[in-house]
Amino acid sequence: MFDLFSADKWLKLWTFKDTFIMGLSNTVKMSIFALIISLILGIIFGLMATSGKKFLEGISRVYVELIQNTPLILQLCFLYYGLAFSGKAIGIIETGIISLGVYHGAYMAEVVRAGIGAISKGQFEAAESQGFGYIGKMYHIILPQSIKIILPPMVNQVVNLIKNTSCLYIIGGADLISMTYSFVTGASTGGAYAPAYLVCGLLFFIICFPLSTMASLWEKSLKMRDLKTVDVGDTINEGMVTK
C-alpha cells in the first residue's frame, strides 16, 4: 500500500504508460467488435424466441441456456485451447472478440425477447389485421415500441461486456488487466502494484461509469414518461365520465 505514495513508482508508471495505453486500446477494440457480434446474435435469437414457431424458439432457448449457464472463462479456454490443439489456433484478441460476442449475445437475446414480450398482444393483432407479415410487423410496429424497454438493459450489458474483457487474463490476453499484470511482474517494471492497479481501475471506471449512469437515467426518464402518459390518460377518462 505504501507504493501508492511512492514518487518512484508513479514515475515508473508514467515512463511505461504506453503499456496501459495499449491495454486500453485492445480492450476498447475487443469491446466494439464483440458488441457488434452480440447485437447481431441478440436480435436474431431474440426474434427467433418470439417468432411463435416452436422449432425456432427451441433453438433460441438452447443457445441462451447453454451460454448463460456456463462460465465465460470456460468458453474462452474451450475456444482458445480447443482450436490450438486441433491445429486451427486463432489469436488471443480474436478469441476474446468471438467469446465475448457469443456470451453477451445470449443476454442480448433475452433483453430483446423481454422487450418484445412487454408489448401488448393488441399491437400484434392490430398489425396482423393491417396485413403485415412477421418482418413488417416487427420492423414497423413492434420493435419501435420496444426500443425504449430494450435500450437501458442493453446498455448495462455493454458495461458488463467491457468489464468481462478482463477474463482474457486467463489465456494471457493483451487486454488492460493482462497488460497491467505484465507491467507489475515485469523484470524491469515490476513492483508498482498499487499505482498500476489503481490506474487500471480508474480507466475501467472512466469508460463504464458514464454508460451505467446513462442507462440508469434513461430508465428513470422512461418510467417518468410512462407515468405522465398514464396520468394524462386517466385525466381524459375522468373528463369523459364527467360529461
UniProtKB/TrEMBL annotation:
Keywords, sorted A to Z: Amino-acid transport, Cell membrane, Membrane, Transmembrane, Transmembrane helix, Transport
Report the main location listed first in the record.
membrane
Against SUPFAM superfamilies, the record matches this protein to: MetI-like
Identification of the protein by name: Putative glutamine transport system permease protein
Cellular location(s)? Cell membrane
What range(s) does the ABC transmembrane type-1 domain occupy? 24-215
Q: Which family does it belong to?
A: Belongs to the binding-protein-dependent transport system permease family. HisMQ subfamily.
Q: Give the record's GO biological process terms.
A: amino acid transport
Q: How does it sit in the membrane?
A: Multi-pass membrane protein
What's a Gene Ontology MF term here? transmembrane transporter activity
| An annotated GO cellular component | ATP-binding cassette (ABC) transporter complex
Segments crossing the lipid bilayer: 30-50, 62-83, 89-109, 167-184, 196-218
